[in-house]
Amino acid sequence: MKKNLFVSLLVFLSINAYSRELIPEEKAAVEQTIRGEMLDPDAAKFDFLDFPTESSHVYCGFVNGKNSFGAYTGKKLFAVFLVKNDKGEQKAISLNMTPSTGEPASQGVISATCSGAGYDVKVPSYTVKNVNKERAKNGLPALTKDMITK
To answer: The whole model's pTM is what?
Structure first.
């Protein structure tokens, strides 16, 4: 029993050892990009998460925004790709839209993207195989049953 607890603690610490907070320039880039996708950009309320791994440029967080009736809709997961341009400026590229249609991506697709990058978010069962491949590439453990939805 003690051995299992020790191993679990080591796994937990090794996964979280690489997490870090966003720097102010990254936060500003994320906010600018996500606000640009919202109906009422000034009403956006962000819940910033830590980067879970150094091997990914995918950043995920939550945002709450207003609908056309002026009511908040609840926190929605978002994903961006954080990079620096050739001038050294921090940029965030949205991963929240379906390229072929320009329509918003489903929360299931966004959660799969985030989980593959190491975030502890639940994913639809149809994405598990691909998510686990991505997690393996990032040196992360496979999804557990409690991280999978139907």
So the answer is: 0.84
